[in-house]
What does this fold into?
Amino acid sequence: MEHPYVPRDLQLPGYVSLSLSQSAIITVFGISSLLVVSLVWLLSGYFAFSPEFYKDKTGFYLAEVWKEYSKGDSRYAGRDTAIVTVEVITSVLEGPPSLLAVYAIATGRGYSYILQFAISLGQLYGTLVYFITAYLDGDNFAASPFYYYAYYIFANSFWILIPSLIAGRCWKKISLAVQSQSQKKNKVR
It folds into this structure.
């Protein structure tokens, strides 16, 4: 069976064509992305606007998440102003554009790259503020080495890795588009 990939002479013994349609794949991807972005937005928003989550006696899941996470960084339970500021900015200024980015990616809109780039830079800035303020305040906020490395270091490493990869990819796409547009203008002259 012939495959749709390039180069055309690429050898794929036993190739089986797609069983799902492109629209089905994109729909599932879009819904999954929307759910992930919404969950992160909900988590940040709950923390930002629930200053006494640590007093919750009902077992409300989001309060429990922040109580547990605070074992890795007690600045959350203590409502450190830098942490509250970063989380408010994340939920209020980055949350809605993240949902718009999911839509833009799923529908192939050209503005998706600049939107992803801006959101990624905002996330990287917030993460830098998060780590730098901890360092300047003595970096002693974890209940144990396990919580320090599992929650504070490992869990937060994704907030550096993923936005960096997205920003790099978007930078390349935007640069190529600008270069292509510039070359078209030069040919016309």
